[in-house]
Amino acid sequence: MAHQPCAIVGVGQTHHKTRRWDVSLGGLVREAAQRALDDAEMTWKDIDAVVIGKAPDLFEGVMKPELYLSDALGAAGKPVFRVHTAGSVGGTTGIVAAHHVESGRHKRVLAVAYQKQSEGNAQFALGSGRGFSIGAGGAFAPFMRSYMYRTGAPAEIGPMVAVKDRKNALKNPYAHLKIEDISLEKVMASPMMWDPVRFLESCPSSDGACAVVFTDKEGGEAAAKAGRQPAWILGSAVRSEPSQFPGRDPVAPQGAADCAADVYQQAGITNPLEQIDCAELYVPFSWYEPMWLEGHHIAEFGEGWKMVERGDTEIGGRFPVNMSGGVLSSNPIGASGLLRFSEAALQVRGMAGEHQVEGANVAIAQAYGASAQYFSMWVVANSLDPFGK
Amino acid sequence: MAGTVESTIKFPYKRSLGPVLGAFMTALTEQRIMGIRSGGRVIVPPLEWDPDTGVELAHDFVDVGPAGTVESWTWVAKPTAQHPLDHPFAFALVKLDGADTALMHAVDAGSIDAMSTGMRVAPRWKAERKGHITDLDAFVPGETPETHEGGGAEEPVTMMDYDATITYRIPTTANQLRSDQASEQGRFLGLKCPICNRTYTGGRGYCPIDAIELGEEHEVDLPQKGVITNYTIITPTPYPGQTATEPFSRVHVWLDGTDVVLGYQTLLDVPNDDVHIGMRVEAVWASEGEKVDKDPRMEGNLIGFLPTGEPDNTDPDLVNRLH
Ligand SMILES: [Zn+2]
After folding, report:
1. Residue B158 at interface with chain A, using a CB cutoff of 8 Å
2. How large is the ipTM?
3. What letter does residue A174 receive in the DSSP assignment?
4. What pTM was computed for the model?
5. Is A239 on the interface with B (CB under 8 A)?
6. pLDDT confidence band for B291 (50 / 70 / 90)
7. Binning pLDDT at 50, 70 and 90, where does residue B288 land?
8. Are the beta carbons of B16 and A21 closer than 8 angstroms?
9. Domain boundaries, chain B
């Protein structure tokens, strides 16, 4: 590796809810950041630089929030870096923060990503302020329809993903949606929102934030010595492609495949299904679980839905996916990517509580954004050499 | 000849104020200006966290003013609708008596000649106060605040409305202008890349694959007819500015004999239950001079697509033509 190793030693998130009107915007990001610092056994003055990510400014109507939030994040006088890559932004924020350490420039970096959807309206923002917004569900619906046709996946696969993620959310104290009596019948009977996607196959609108503390090799080793297991970053990658051009396949975008190939190569992964113990994938609509299992080469094309059908992606299955309950259960958009990335870290640190995958040594996280055109991924492990190279 | 397209976006945002700014706004309804103690100093308006150390501040509030001193100022000779006053005024940094930091607000001094650094000012309060920085109408020269009878808010202020408006102009390129002009004549103008032969619509003056510019010499007229390859039926959710009330369809249309697929297009006069892949459709344009409330995903004066009545295209793989 040409760069310095980087360890995750602190993770924090808010309780995600429809409306967090009990706190200011600063109070919201602060809550996640404070938990991450506590986890890392650090204070504000220990942090060298802050990286902030969120989805478009139109969501809350706060322009340049990285300036507005610098007090809340103890960032006055420190380097602050704003990241913006649509829905994938949370993931990219984590990767950029890791780069700050991997480059050798900083020793301890705080990444924070958030969204306070209740201050604005996502459908409004995604429709550029006009009527007849198709929203994210409408934008992705034709892609899911094409996937269903191409693979011949049974109609229940999407609803099965929805049931699994909502059951996992019941084990996660921070998750937004908690639907105790969730069932396949209940999902299938829920209203068709963006044909072919139903209401209970879709993500909620959430207020929430997520924060991660990164440190260098020395810091990671010190944490390990003190009995606080770090998560080591074995590889990270981002890719993007234009939103549309003749011949683009948004069901299996080239950007997603390239991002996965890069990150596996960095981590020394040649057989993702065997070498990775669990995954947090960005699944805002149910069908995206099999689509991304295939799109990121965990399964062959047309095989991802069979993993869902067999129960492989449940906690306790062969390849657990979205143990946290995923985007389907909590969606503070800008934070959603970093929530995926931090859950992967929690898993390999053995700190995921009730949604812990037993023996999780290596985990991946992924986020995507805009018209399925921005991708970010990382591989984390509980050691720098999990495959005994 | 390039022009510009002007757009206005407005939205009634809500702000949850949190414990510190909430207390500040509540005090404003009571015609008081409040700061917070941070070590040896008093910060106005109050912050939740110490700006030097990042440590959370105890809620040790203290009233400041009512009068204060102008530390710096700038004259606004031509106020816009978004300014706090409708006649010329100064934006000033006012250090209130007892405060260690300055509050930015308007000073209503009548003329630029009445303004000076170091001048003394006092607040002029609004008669109706709701817990907003504009409850303090402006500062005026002198030591005496202008107050009103009546108390403050009945309940502590926790939320703030923020009605945001922004008007912006996007320059139109020469390509876009020609594309718009064609659409006014009911024509689809495409730009064909000479390297990869892909065709782009909407005056997109480049090929993202080959990274080359496309111009007038690459223009081609595209057919008006096509086939629906994919679709969705969208259930509208309410939001300020939403005009849709009933579920509506959006369709992908593949123009005949080309590689052009127009995504998320409006389908006219077809009940949602009848929308299907393979349906033959034709473009419908607004007549010249007719103003169209454009969906940004639609080409120029294109209103939508109507079924042609021709037999369906039954190729099952149509569903995969997404771009
Ligand atoms: Zn080309």
Report:
1. yes
2. 0.92
3. T
4. 0.94
5. no
6. low
7. low
8. yes
9. 3-165, 173-222, 223-323
